[in-house]
Each structure stands twice: as C-alpha cells, then as structure tokens.
Amino acid sequence: MELRRGLLLIFLAMTIFLQNSSNVEGRYHYHKKQKNKSSPVPENPVPSSPSNPPSIPSDPYLDDPGNSTDCIFDVKDYGAVGDGSADDTAAFRAAWKAACAVEGGVILAPSDYSFKITSTIFSGPCQPGLVFQLDGILMPPDGPDTWPKADSHMQWLVFYKLDDMKFTGKGTIEGNGQKWWDLPCKPHRGPEGSTSSGPCDSPALIRFFMSSNLVVSGLTIQNSPQFHMKFDGCNGVLIDKLSISSPKLSPNTDGIHIENSKSVGIYNSMISNGDDCISIGTGCSDVDIAGVTCGPSHGISIGSLGVHNSQACVSNITVRNANIRESDNGLRIKTWQGGTGSVSGISFENIQMENVRNCIIIDQYYCMSKACLNQTSAVYVTGITYRNIKGTYDVRTPPIHFACSDTVACTNITMAEVELLPHEGQLLDDPFCWNAYGTQETLTIPPINCLQEGQPQNVAEVSAYGC
User: Fold this and answer.
1) Which of 153, 185, 216, 429 is the most buried (most CB within 10 A)?
2) Active site includes 298?
3) Catalytic residue among 153, 228, 257, 298
4) Three-state secondary-structure class, residue 230
5) H helices present in 80-215, as ranges
6) What is the DSSP letter of 33?
7) What residues does 285 pair with on adjacent strands?
C-alpha cells in the first residue's frame, strides 16, 4: 500500500511539472506574437520556439516595451493641455526626448486636442523607427506679435539629423499665416491687379534638415506663414497622401520645397496655395512626383537656379500622372542670368492642365525686378521631355514659352502628344521660342514651329557648364 501511494505521488508531481513547462512555452509564444505585432520585424527574427526555455514559470517579455504601451509617449502625459491657448512646448520636447531614446518610440499628439507650441528644433540622432503621430491639431503662436522675441522668425518646426523617422497621422497642422501675410514688407499681387502687402522674415512651417530615410504621410497642413514644408540636405524621402492648402493670394507659401536632396518621392497629394505647388531647388536628383493635384498655385517649378552667379545642379526629375488646375504656371524651369551648372534628365509625362497660364515654360531670364542685366553665363538646360501634356490654357499668355540664354542654348527638348487648347476665347500669340533646340515626335497643338532642330553651333562650349 505504501509503495502504491508513493508511486502515485511521483506521478502527480511529474504531471504538474509537465503542465508548468507547457504553460511557460505557451506564454513565450503568445508574447512573441504580441511583440511582432507592435514592433518592426527584426532583421534576424527569433525562432518561434526558444532554444533554451525558462526552467521556471515566468513571463520572459514582462518588461519589454514591444508588447505594451511603453513605446507610446503621449504629450498629455508630459503636461500638454491641448486647449489651443496654453503653451505646450515643454511637453512636446519632453515627449520627444523620451521617444528618441528608445527603438520604435512614438510621440503621440492625440485627437480632440489643439496644441500650441513655439519654434522648436526636434533633433537627433535618435533610435531607429521613431514616429511622430499627430492626430489632433498642432499650431504655432498666432502671428508675429505673439511670436517669442527669442525664437527664429525663419522657421517653426525643424527636424534635424534624423534617420528612419516617420511624421504621420490624421491630424492638422494649422499655420496661422494670415497676420504674417499682412506684414507691409514685400509687395505681392492682390485682387484685381492691386498690390497687397506680404511677408518679411516669415517662418517656414516645417523643415527637415540633414536627415535620411524619412516618411511624411496622411497629414493636413494649411495656412503656413511662408513655405509649408521644406527638405534641405536630405536623402531618402517618401511623401504620401498629404493635403496642403493656403489661399490663392497668400505670398511665398510654396507647398513642398526640396533642395540639396536626393531620392525623393512625392505621391498622391493635394496642394493648393499662393506660390509653387512643388519647387525643386539646386542640388536635387532622383526625384519622382506622381499622382499630385495642384491648384490654384504657381505650378510645379524647377528653380529658381543660379542666383548671384552661383552653380546649380539638378538632374533626373520625373513628374507624371499629375493634374494642374487654375494656376499661373504649369511645368516651369526658371534660372537666373549669370549662373552656371545644369538642369538635365527632366521628364514631364501624363499631365492634365485646366485653365493654366504658361502651361510649359523654360525661362532663363528669371528676375525679381526690372534691373536685371543680360549676362553671358547661364545654367545649361538639356534633356527635357514633355510627353502626353493635354488640357486647356489661359489665353492671356502663350501656352508654350521657351526663353533660353543667348549664349547657352536649351538643347534636346522632346515634345510628344502635347495638345493644349484655349480654356476660353482664342489663341492670341503663337508659342514662343528663343535659342531652343529639340524634336517633335508628334505634331503639337498649338504648333511649335519655333523649336529648332538639331544642335546649336556652339554646343561644344556648354561642356563647361556640366555638374
């Protein structure tokens, strides 16, 4: 009897031990799935079964932020009020500092709140996978009178020296630009041809500087005092599904401006503003723009380039599947007299125009006043393709305008399936060309008989203008 009781106790003990061991492994698998659900997949995933499972019942991921809210840094938890009037700057800076220090950190500005912060630099380097999640409203102080005197008047939000960062959400960035636009410093066009006041040192709303592997998506950005969004010295940028807007007559409110940046994609966005929809400055290459709707605006511009006799280099730019509506310009390349460098490898394809002035324009005589002098040096423009550009134009100016330098001709311009008809009335002037060379793969509407075939006699000299 005693032997039978002893054997039974040993059997029960072994059963309990096996159940506990099974529960440990089950817990490990469960938390591993939760971790992968909320964190990026690592480069070397952990096997589904641990090679050395815990020997005692425990939770091997109890303190890991991957399966909890420890990676989410809500600005409300750091003291943000979110009533639209309190200064929430300190809370955002504290949340940024905490999120920056962990991999996959998320700064959360939740919905149903309006946060006001002053000019701030959110700097790195940070741990990979940082996310700035804006679901509420974020705004600067309302106009120059309430702007802190010690703060920069040139920029508001700056993201500096970051890698692998995402700025996203369903929220709105409200620029409070009206009082900046009304400063009596720089004249700009007003209603019915009048002259209205404009900005002096007005802040750009958002600037990414010297950063890489960036994603900006989903946000609504509106009423910036000056440029809505700038990318300077960046490499690897994805911009997707943005809505950018400001009034038609708001001065210098470019939608997206990029300079000294490479490998940039701008997709599926709506932009209406008082200046260039998208502007591409010097030092840019490998830029792809697709699925963008512009207007009213000043169109999609490369330039201005070569100001103050500087060298400008822009190459490999593609704009495709876009719509431009009710805009002062359509597809524009603009350079100053006296510059050097080149604009090359530019493709505009599948663009629909609606009541646009200067649908297609190259202007190598760009000038902000009437005092600019004609100079012998110029930025060399070559390898520009316009393919399947169709729609209607405002008849106040010709729909095609190629004004190239006297000494440095524009070369290798290709026209194919370009059909532009008057929006109202009849064409007043034929397309204009000056020192422009290229080919017509198909007949252009209106006919562009002024585009010269072949190459200019002094084409060998332009080699000095390459980049």
Assistant:
1) 216
2) yes
3) 298
4) strand
5) 89-100, 178-181
6) H
7) 262, 315
Report whether pLDDT(261) > 60.
yes
- Both ends of the chain: CA-CA distance in Å? 98
Q: Which of 414, 385, 274, 390 is nearest to 322 (CA)?
A: 390
Q: How far apart are CA 424 and CA 431, in angstroms?
A: 17
Residue whose C-alpha is closest to residue 159's, from 252, 233, 238: 233
In the beta sheet, which residues pair with residue 333?
Answer: 302, 362
Structure tokens that stand for 133 in this block: 């999640």
pLDDT value at residue 69? 57
d(CA 109, CA 136): 6
Beta bridge partners of 340: 311
**Whether 255 contacts 276, CB under 8 Å:** yes
- pLDDT confidence of residue 388: 98
Residues 6+ apart with CB under 8 A from 324: 277, 293, 294, 295, 297, 299, 300, 330, 331, 351, 352, 353, 354, 356, 359, 391
Alpha helices, H only, 39-122:
89-100
Q: Which of 275, 328, 363, 394 is catalytic?
A: 275
Strand runs (DSSP E) across 140-242, as ranges? 155-160, 163-168, 172-174, 188-189, 195-196, 204-209, 212-217, 220-222, 229-232, 235-240
Q: What is the pLDDT of residue 21?
A: 41
Does a cis peptide bond (omega within 30 degrees of 0) precede residue 125? Answer: yes
> Catalytic: 29?
no
- Half-sphere exposure (Cβ direction) of 22: Cα atoms closer than 13 Å: 6
Query: Is the distance from CB of 253 to CB of 312 less than 8 angstroms?
Result: no
Report the pLDDT averaged over residues 326-349.
Answer: 96
Helices (H) and strands (E) in the chain, counts: 3, 34
DSSP 212: E
> How far, in Å, are 14, 53, 66, 268 from residue 61 at the CA level?
27, 13, 9, 40
Give the model confidence (pLDDT) of 200-231 as tens digits: 789 999 999 999 999 999 999 999 999 999 99
Q: Are 299 and 270 in contact (CB under 8 A)?
A: no
CA 37 to chain CA mean position, Å: 29
| DSSP strand pairing (229-232 vs 256-259) | parallel
CA-CA distance, 135 to 145, in Å (whole number)? 28
More confident of the two residues 336 and 369:
336
The beta strand positions in 326-368, using DSSP E, are 331-336, 340-356, 360-366
Provide, for the chain, the percentages of residues in helix, strand and coil under a 3-state DSSP scheme, each rounded to the nearest 5: 15, 40, 40
Mean pLDDT, the chain, rounded, equals 85
Q: Is the pLDDT of residue 348 over 80?
A: yes
Model-level pTM? 0.83
- Residue identified by tokens 């900005």 is 199
